[in-house]
Amino acid sequence: MDxxxxxxxxxxxxxxxxDVFTEAVGITKKEVSLVANTTAKLELPVIxxxxxxxxxxxxxxxxxxxxxxxxQKFIDLARTWGAKNILLVLGEYIWQREGHPG
Length: 102
Known about the structure:
Layout: H1 3-12, E1 18-19, H2 29-41, E2 46-52, H3 61-81, E3 85-89, H4 92-95
Parallel strand pairs: 1-2, 2-3
Helix pairs in contact: 1-2
């Protein structure tokens, strides 16, 4: 399902805010505009952007540096969409074995 349709369904079923799970590295300007325009039209504010960034706690400098830069891109994207925060997920779902049988 495309982004605009998903946002329309979210608004239709009664949500008054939305968290947008995306990838800030490489998101197109077209997609950024689509989310901004659609959420504004639907009066469906973006509250947060979840980001899984296990690499922030990696022992290797290049990995940590990449994830710091990546999280900065999420912060910038959150600012663009007027979101109040990013939801930083450091890997709880991995350690609790949620999401994959591991």
